[in-house]
Design a protein that fits this description.
alpha+beta, Protein Transport Mog1p, Chain A, 2 domains, 10 helices
Length: about 425
């Protein structure tokens, strides 16, 4: 699986920018037989493991408790049902996963009477749902570039490095707060170290991010995200059994079953909103003041809505504006706050399928989960969860989405100041 796809997943969950702070060097706690390591030593071993561990497979489970008192999986099909699309995976589930550097990723989720398979390998990213007998080939969004140097090795094997992506994620987590060693634990039958990341920002809904790491192989086995004041993880994903043996390449080659309907679909990536990853003009992505961002956006026919006086805990910290292309209109990204105490606002000309699609998804959720409201003089919706608050609205021909890992009261104050 490409690093771009891992980045898509990370951005969709966090929707905040990182701020550099120090890494704590506390020692491992507990009296087990595991060697005592500092955070820096453990992260170094995890980094080494991402280079030396070539294959990981096993049973996994993941859960999503973002909606208080509700089970999204139950609302949209029941826990016993396998998902029928990539977005359905976000609701929680269980299955088996195979990862191998240079080969790809395979995920199988079994349900009552149906299965869902995701394969990312040399022939691209595919999914298959037995419930609908549909195979989908996912492509980069229109306007995104898939070009790679032709003189080097095939781009798919060289970019299929999920362990390295997880390691990079750990490093980013370490740069947004204080990282300490938690009690040693056992995950998937393996004695494991526990990294506990506490955000530096006091204006965040995130209490901690906890990563369990195999004490022998130093491969991350489980990630849990806790809302502030909660002892039950709001988001969780991890192995329940694991092995590290070499995997056959046939696992990562997808062929649509006979009789299946096959179609293509572009990935709705944040990269598509922000422009081509291979843009040759760095200035297009430089950080701008709010006044400069408004002027630049206006030059593309995009009128921005921003807080006239944002809450003092969410000061404006930068913006980016990208030019329109054949596939999308001009887009602006405004950032307020810092680290996990951030709100990000994405505004685009009405043709942006990403922003419009999210607004429609929010509006279509069951009643009681969203609040209809007026934002910037236009119709809008707000979705509140223990971790992330999201709002989507329309002002004129501009579609906007705001998301932040900040308390609901602070988020509401932010929305009320937008005009």
């Amino acid at each position: 699986m490409s690093r771009k796809w891992w980045a898509i997943i990370v951005v969709a969950v966090l929707a905040v920018a990182a701020v550099t702070v120090g890494i704590a060097t506390s020692r491992a706690q507990g009296t087990t037989s595991l060697q005592s390591l500092s955070v820096a030593q453990l992260l170094a071993k995890v980094g080494d493991a991402s280079k030396s561990t070539t294959a990981v497979s096993g049973d996994i489970t993941w859960s999503n408790g973002l909606i208080p008192g509700s089970d999204l999986t139950g609302l949209l099909g029941g826990q016993s049902s396998a998902p029928s699309s990539l977005s359905g995976l976000a609701l929680g589930g269980s299955g088996r996963i195979w990862l191998q550097q240079g080969s790809g990723l395979r995920l199988e989720s079994q349900g009552s009477g149906s299965d869902f398979v995701v394969v990312a390998g040399k022939n691209g990213l595919w999914s298959y749902s037995s419930a609908t007998s549909t195979a989908t080939h996912y492509t980069l969004p229109m306007g995104a570039s898939a070009k790679t140097p032709t003189s080097g090795p095939s781009p798919q094997p060289s970019s299929t490095d999920p362990l390295a992506a997880i390691t990079a994620g750990l490093q980013r987590f370490a740069s947004t707060g204080t990282v300490t060693m938690g009690p040693q634990t056992t995950v998937a039958g393996q004695p494991s170290y526990l990294l506990v990341m506490t955000p530096a920002s006091v204006h965040t809904t995130v209490g901690s991010v906890q990563v369990a790491i195999d004490a022998k192989t130093f491969v991350p086995l489980r990630v849990r995200v806790f809302a502030k004041g909660d002892t039950t993880a709001t988001l969780s994903a991890g192995f329940t059994s694991v092995s590290y043996g070499h995997l056959g390449n046939s696992l990562f080659a997808f062929t649509a079953p006979a009789g299946a309907t096959v179609h293509s679909q572009a990935l709705p990536s944040p990269q598509g909103l922000l422009g081509s990853a291979t843009a040759t003009k760095p200035a297009a992505h430089q950080q701008l003041t709010l006044a400069a961002a408004k002027v630049k956006a206006a030059g593309y026919g995009l009128t921005l809505a921003a807080p006239s006086s944002p809450p003092s805990d969410l000061p404006f910290t930068g913006a980016m504006v990208t030019a329109p292309s054949k596939a999308r209109g001009a887009t602006a990204v405004l950032h307020y706050g810092s680290g996990f105490g951030s709100v990000v606002v994405i505004e685009s000309q009405g043709g942006s399928s990403q922003s419009t699609g999210l607004q429609q998804q929010i509006a279509s959720l069951p009643q009681g989960l969203i609040t209809a409201m007026t934002i910037a003089g236009g119709p809008g919706y707000e979705l509140q969860t223990p971790l992330v608050n999201i709002a989507a609205w329309q002002h004129g021909t501009t579609t906007a989405v705001a998301a932040g890992l900040v308390p609901q009261t602070l988020f509401s104050q932010f929305l009320a100041a937008i005009h």
